Amino acid sequence: MNAEIDTRALSSLMRPGARIAVADGCGTPRAAFPALGGIARERGDLRLVLGWMPAPVEGLDLAAFADARTVMPGWGLRAGVSQGHVRAVPARLSAMPALLAGPLRPDLLVVSAAPGPYGPVLGSEVSWMRVAIDAGVPLAVVLDDALPRAASGPPLPEDQTFVIGHASDGPAVVPVAPEPSPEHRRIGELVAGLLPDDARVQWAPGQLGQAVVRGILDRGRPVHADSGLLGDPVVDLDEAGLLASTPTATYLVGTPRLYGWADEHGRAGRPVLHGVEVTHDPNRLAADPPLVAVNTAVEIDRDGQVNVEGPASAIVGGIGGHPDYAAAATRSRHGLSVIALASTHRGVPTMVERLSRPVTTASHDVDVVVTEHGVADLRGLDRGERRRALRPLWPD
């Protein structure tokens, strides 16, 4: 890590008992983590708000805070949650603006920003940060000249911005998912066959997302990318000439290939990133062109209810935008809410009699379920018909 942080300047921005929000995503201000943890240990009364962390939060002493909460407990925060240092708040990502305006309103936002021609700009994510910025929350900014300039919108307000240090870390690198398994490749083919003309597509990360994009590439018909996360597969679509418009997302998560693509226009960047109040807005998502939301699940029950938080033994993910995109897709004319998953995971069926955790996405927000064994179109069916339609996707 190549960084210089002014700990005294950061501490001066924190009143006693302050709630500190740390910007999330791959561009989270990692360089400030040791200083932030040290101040929390010294003060003993600071509170912490976290979002989605795709990599371990090394250097951030979560146990030093009087209270720490997140709405996305998966990935980088799994250890903190399991050890009891971080409380996982069950909330969809679109609820973050309301939470930040109310019970979780921060007194300070610690954020990384890229140097821009007219001042610092958000880099590899916008997420919920714009909401805090627009509310007038002071910003402790780490200037990072290795961040891509991929955010739409204006630079950070000069009167709220306090530069506490400089870094050249860039966003965390999240390797491309492993090559899709034969089961996932089959699922990708089936999902691609469901897409209407001129579709907007949201897809989940990982092997499933890779398989869905491969299916789109094989199909050879342009799509609009409209997803909470954009990974390296969006570059594949662009290079194949299959992006029908500028993509829309709130996070970049991937490798230098993705970050270079997002920063391709130099200091102007490629403005693909917007705040969650835009990306996860149900009315925008449900509008034309038709939205096909392709999400996965840890498990699904016989009524089509979905759990994405994890098995009974551990939380492995957060609610995130899963129910936001699924609900909007069911309202989109000619759109679809698709749940795509392999019929087994490590030899255990993903269809269960009873979910291990509370419902993430309701059955009435699921239009179609896809496994490697086929497609179940649940639209217009009653409860009994839905159960019978799902049965062949999990053969005994």
TrEMBL record:
A molecular function GO annotation: acetate CoA-transferase activity
Source species, domain of life: Bacteria
A matching Pfam family: AcetylCoA_hyd_C
Gene3D superfamilies assigned: 4-hydroxybutyrate coenzyme like domains (3.30.750.70), Acetyl-CoA hydrolase/transferase C-terminal domain (3.40.1080.20), Glutaconate Coenzyme A-transferase (3.40.1080.10)
Listed name of the protein: Acetyl-CoA hydrolase/transferase C-terminal domain-containing protein
Domain Acetyl-CoA hydrolase/transferase C-terminal: from-to ranges: 254-390
Lineage: Bacteria, Bacillati, Actinomycetota, Actinomycetes, Pseudonocardiales
InterPro entries on file: AcetylCoA_hyd_C, AcetylCoA_hyd_C_sf, ActCoA_hydro, NagB/RpiA_transferase-like
One GO term (biological process): acetate metabolic process
